[in-house]
Design a protein that fits this description.
With 439 residues, the protein is of the alpha/beta class. It folds into two domains: 138 residues, N-utilizing Substance Protein B Homolog, Chain A, CATH 1.10.940; 206 residues, Vaccinia Virus protein VP39 (Rossmann fold, 3-Layer(aba) Sandwich). Helices cover 44% and strands 15% of the residues. The strands form two sheets. Strands 5, 6, 7, 8, 9, 10, 11 and 12 form an eight-stranded mixed beta sheet that branches. A four-stranded antiparallel beta sheet has the order 2-3-1-4. Strand 5, helix 14 and strand 6 form a beta-alpha-beta unit. Helix 3 packs across helix 4, helix 5 runs antiparallel to helix 6 and helix 9 packs across helix 10. The model has no long low-confidence stretch (mean pLDDT 90).
């Protein structure tokens, strides 16, 4: 039976994430069957998303404030998560697997305690126990209290609570079709491979895979007909498309999703791609080779000190490093790896990137700034601060006759910048277009 190895890997990766925080890993190649890969993703994402709730559920059932071994705690969290959220898994299977895991992780002495806590929870659930009614909102939805309070201050209580709820919903793998003429070929291949997918509810030529297993090996991906990209990024690029023209620089280009969309725009004469990291440059090169686009140059340089003279580009895109709070749907560990002190650690870098972008921008050109952040300090405040430092720069509005103008139903009312908040169909994203009228 292969299923227990799936749970073993879930515990292994969860413990690794706790000791070395980073993005939630993809299912390992050892899991060949898509059902095992799907279970791996559901369980690991669940442990990371609901870590605070699961911790509280353990504390409620310990006789004393006993410090547990990390592996014992992880096994308990997995069992509790399954009993609370995985209705299709029989309770007896969850209890059996927890016992098996205690043996595999060499904590067999804790097996009676693990079994007792899980049986007690099962008994309470049968009697009507509802953790949603027992715990506070931030504990049940497993958000740091400080993060929820930040969002309440920025967006109001109702919107902040919705942000937490939507941020806990994993949206699947999103693929964008680059060439509409290839759609039938792509979808036929998906059907032949029994891929479970559906069209995105709003974005044209975007498809959502329920399980990401195998799409990288498809002809559609290898030939560059499709690419992985966040729907929020696509919405932003559709909004920003009218601003891209002439000689364009993408300052923080990796992994290259936005660059692929820029390359397809008719008013773009030349495209330069830059990133500071050699590893990230390699990802750009892989995407370029796969899709066949031909940028004018690929550079590895510090975005704060770009190797270009003053007034060099017509359009400069700065998709800046940020807190990434708009991506918690796919990176739930952000809730626990960020702190109130470190959340805004990129503010100075963002400021310097904007100043350098202004230096190399031609008079009359457009400086496009974007983040996947929900935090106003990284978004509106950063843009307002830039405008205060640079006289002669101003916000540009998107022309009302441009394609896909219905996007403005999701942006702010005066259309002077782009912002969507994390919702049921996409994560959060911010963008602004800034121009200068003199040298």
């Amino acid at each position: 039976m292969k299923d227990p190895s799936t749970r073993f890997l879930v515990i292994h990766f969860f413990l690794e994430l706790k000791s070395k925080p980073g993005s939630t890993p993809k299912p390992p190649s050892i899991l060949g069957d898509f059902r095992e890969r799907s279970l791996f993703t559901q369980l690991l994402q669940g442990l990371v998303r609901y870590d605070r709730l699961l911790e509280e559920e353990i504390k409620r059932r310990l006789l004393r404030n006993k410090k547990l071994q990390k592996s014992v705690s992880a096994i308990l969290k997995l069992g509790i998560f399954e009993l609370l959220f995985m209705e299709k898994i029989p309770a007896r299977a969850s209890l059996h697997q927890a016992g098996w895991l205690s043996e595999r992780f060499r904590v067999k002495a804790a097996k009676p305690m693990i079994n007792g806590i899980l049986r007690k929870l099962l008994e309470e659930l049968d009697q009507g126990y509802d953790p949603k009614m027992t715990h506070s909102f931030e504990i049940y939805h497993s958000f740091p209290s400080w993060m929820l309070e930040r969002w309440k201050t920025q967006y109001g209580e109702h919107q902040a609570l919705e942000l937490c709820q939507f941020s806990n919903q994993f949206q699947g793998v999103h693929l964008l079709l680059h060439d509409p003429e290839k759609q039938n070929l792509v979808l036929n291949e998906f059907s032949d491979l029994s891929f479970a997918y559906e069209p995105h509810a709003v974005i044209p030529r975007m498809f959502v895979l329920h399980d990401g297993k195998g799409f990288i090996k498809t002809k559609a991906f290898q030939k560059g007909w499709i690419s992985v990209i966040d729907p929020s990024s696509v919405l932003f690029m559709l909004w920003a498309a009218p601003f891209f023209q002439g000689k364009v620089l993408d300052v923080c280009a990796a992994p290259g999703g936005k660059s692929l969309m820029i390359a397809a725009l008719g008013k773009v004469d030349s495209l330069y791609l830059n990133d500071v990291s050699r590893h990230r440059i390699k990802r750009i090169q892989e995407n370029i080779q796969r899709t066949g686009i031909s940028p004018s140059a690929i550079l590895q340089s510090d975005g704060e000190k770009l190797p270009f003279d003053k007034h060099h580009f017509d359009t400069v895109l700065i998709d800046a490093p940020c807190s990434s709070t708009g991506t918690i749907q796919k990176n739930p560990d952000i809730k626990w790896t960020a702190s109130e002190k470190t959340l805004l650690k990129h503010l100075e870098l963002q400021r310097q990137l904007l100043d350098e972008g202004a230096r190399i921008l031609k008079p009359g050109g457009t400086l496009i700034y974007s983040t996947c952040s929900l935090e106003e300090e990284e978004n509106q405040n950063q843009v307002e601060s830039f405008l205060a430092r640079h006289t002669g720069f101003f916000m540009k509005k998107r022309p009302s006759d441009s394609a896909f103008f219905e996007l403005d139903d999701w942006t702010n009312e005066d259309h002077s910048f782009f912002q969507i908040l994390t919702g049921s169909k996409w994560g959060g994203f911010f963008g602004a277009a800034i121009s200068c009228d003199h040298a």
